[in-house]
Specification:
Helix content: 55-70%
Structural class: mainly alpha
Order of helices and strands: HHHHHHHHHHHHHH
Radius of gyration: 21 Å
Number of helices: 14
Shape: globular
Largest sheet: none
Number of strands: 0
C-alpha cells in the first residue's frame, strides 16, 4: 500500500509559503481590533480617547487596505491546497477525497475547540464546513469554476437586496439562543457586552462566560454578512489556480499577473476607499437603502484588491527569481495553522484579564 506522508520540504512551493505568511500577518492586523476590544467600542466611546483623531485615520486605512483582503487571500490558498491534495494523491494512486476529508475533519475539530474554548473570531470552523463542499466542484470545467466563483462573490448584492425588501436577517434566528446563555452567565445583553472582558477585575470567569455564547453571535454575524458565499467563491478561484498549477509556473503567467495587478488596484483601491467611507457612515441595509453601498463596494473592492496584492507578490518573486526579503514570510507560512492559533493565545494573554490585561 502507498503510504500517506506530509509534504516534504523539497516538494513545497516557496511562493505559497510566502503568501500564507503574508496572509497570516494581514489576518493578525485585522484581528488585533478584536483582541484589544477596540473594535467593540461605539464611535462615542472611541471619541473619549486622546488618540481618537489618529485612531480614526488608522481605522479607516485598516478597513480600506486590510479588512477582508487577507481572509480572501487565505481562502484562495485554501482552494489551492485542495487542488494540491487532489493532484498529488491521485498521482500516487491514493484516494484523494479520503485524505482531504480526513484533514477537513481534523480542521473541523480544531475549529470547534478554537471558537468555543479560545476565541470567537475563529475562521477554521467556517473553512472546514465549506471545505466539505469543495469536492463537489472537482468535475467542473475551468470556465465553470470561475463562473461559480464570480456568482458566489457578488451574490451578497442580490442577497442584501432581498433582505432589504423582506426586512429579514438570515442569522437572527441564532440570537435568542445566545441571549439565553447570556442571561444564565450574566453577560450583559445591552451595550455592556462591549467592555465586559476588559473592565477592571475581569478574569477567567468573565472570559468563560463570554465564550459560552460568543460563538453563536459570531455565526449570526457571518450569516448576516454573507461570509459563506464569499469564502466559497475564493476557494473556487484557488482551486482553479491550483488546477492550472500557476504557483509552480509563475513566469508563464506574468502577463496575467500584470493585468490582475493593474485592474485590481484600479478597481480595488477606490472601491475599498468607498467601502471604508460608507462603512463609517453608520447606515446599514436595514436602516436605509443607501446601506446597500456597503455591500456593493465590499463586493467590487475586496477581491480585486486581494488579487492585486497576490499578483504584485508573484511578479516581484518572478523578477527577483525568489531571492528577496519576502522569504522572511515563508517560515510563518510553512506553519500557518500553528501561527494562526498562536495569534489567539498571545492575543488573549496580552490583552485579556486572564493574562497581562493590557486591554483593561
Amino acid at each position: 500500500m502507498t503510504s500517506i506522508n506530509p509534504v516534504k520540504y523539497s516538494d513545497r512551493s516557496p511562493i505559497l509559503d510566502v503568501l500564507r505568511g503574508i496572509a497570516i500577518l494581514g489576518i493578525f492586523i485585522n484581528n488585533i481590533y478584536g483582541f484589544t476590544g477596540y473594535g467593540n467600542f461605539t464611535e462615542k466611546s472611541k471619541q473619549l480617547f486622546s488618540t481618537y483623531p489618529l485612531d480614526k485615520v488608522i481605522s479607516f486605512l485598516q478597513i480600506m487596505l486590510v479588512e477582508g483582503k487577507f481572509y480572501s487571500l487565505f481562502s484562495l490558498l485554501f482552494g489551492i491546497g485542495f487542488s494540491i491534495i487532489i493532484i498529488r494523491n491521485e498521482q500516487k494512486g491514493i484516494n484523494a477525497f479520503k485524505v482531504f476529508y480526513r484533514r477537513i475533519a481534523i480542521l473541523f475539530l480544531i475549529g470547534v475547540v478554537h471558537i468555543y474554548f479560545l476565541w470567537e473570531g475563529d475562521i477554521l470552523l467556517l473553512y472546514a464546513m465549506l471545505g466539505f463542499v469543495l469536492p463537489f466542484f472537482k468535475k467542473f470545467s475551468d470556465k465553470g469554476l470561475l463562473i461559480w466563483a464570480v456568482v458566489l462573490i457578488v451574490s451578497p448584492l442580490a442577497i442584501d437586496v432581498i433582505k432589504v425588501l423582506l426586512q429579514v436577517n438570515p442569522g437572527d434566528f441564532l440570537q435568542p439562543f445566545a441571549e439565553a446563555i447570556d442571561k444564565r452567565t450574566g453577560v450583559p445583553i445591552d451595550d455592556g457586552w462591549r467592555t465586559y472582558l476588559f473592565k477592571e477585575g475581569s478574569g477567567w470567569q468573565e472570559w468563560r462566560n463570554y465564550q459560552s455564547s460568543s460563538f453563536i453571535y459570531r455565526y449570526q454575524s457571518l450569516l448576516n454578512n454573507n461570509r459563506f458565499p464569499k469564502v466559497l467563491g475564493m476557494f473556487l478561484i484557488g482551486f482553479y489556480v491550483g488546477r492550472k498549477m500557476m504557483y509552480a509556473n509563475l513566469s508563464n503567467y506574468a502577463t496575467l499577473f500584470k493585468k490582475l495587478m493593474l485592474w485590481g488596484f484600479v478597481i480595488g483601491l477606490p472601491a475599498s476607499f468607498a467601502m471604508a467611507w460608507f462603512e463609517g457612515d453608520g447606515k446599514n441595509v436595514y436602516q436605509s437603502v443607501w446601506g446597500l453601498l456597503d455591500t456593493f463596494f465590499y463586493a467590487i473592492g475586496v477581491v480585486p484588491l486581494s488579487l492585486a496584492y497576490v499578483s504584485a507578490v508573484c511578479l516581484f518573486w518572478v523578477k527577483t527569481k525568489g531571492i528577496n526579503k519576502l522569504s522572511v514570510f515563508a517560515p510563518v507560512g510553512r506553519m500557518a495553522l500553528t501561527n494562526y492559533l498562536l495569534q489567539t493565545i498571545f492575543g488573549i494573554l496580552i490583552f485579556y484579564g486572564i493574562g497581562f490585561g493590557v486591554g483593561q
